[in-house]
Design goal:
Elements: H1 3-16, E1 29-37, E2 40-50, E3 53-60, E4 66-74, E5 80-93, E6 96-106, E7 109-115, H2 127-130
Antiparallel strand pairs: 1-2, 2-3, 3-4, 4-5, 5-6, 6-7
Length: 132
């Protein structure tokens, strides 16, 4: 696999897992400001280096859900773009709150919308589940 592809995958995994493996230095994290996301107040927190670029998390003041994140990432055409990911429709499953709706905006243009319809945590898969 080419080194640049490995770097992109590594950066994407770092962003995906930032809540599971936060940065080792507290100085790498800072509060920026408060802002509204979908009409609700959110605190904007920046983690200085996640996958080689800053990651901004927008945390809902009341629910403490991460309702948006912003970072510089790869566009499908191989160029770099500002990526905004919006999360909504949070539900508690297995003791955790999970978003069921996700909207991705690249350089200000809608890029992707998805909705999770059936989420189970550690439910255990059987061979028939996989081979359907």
């Amino acid at each position: 696999m080419p080194a640049d592809a490995v770097g992109r995958i590594r950066a994407d995994l770092a962003r995906s897992h930032v809540m599971l493996a936060p940065p080792p230095e507290i100085s790498d994290v800072r509060f920026l400001r408060s802002e509204e996301v979908d009409g609700r107040p959110a605190d904007v927190i920046e983690i200085r280096d996640v996958g080689g670029t800053p990651l901004r998390l927008y945390v809902d003041v009341d629910s403490h859900d991460v309702v948006k994140q912003v970072f510089i990432g790869d566009a499908p055409d191989g160029t770099m773009s500002q990526v905004e990911e919006f999360y909504s429709d949070f539900r508690e499953i297995g003791g955790y709150r999970w978003h069921h709706k996700r909207k991705v905006v690249r350089n200000g243009k809608p890029a992707l919308e998805s909705e999770t319809s059936n989420l189970k945590v550690n439910s255990g898969l059987t061979k028939s589940d996989i081979l359907r």
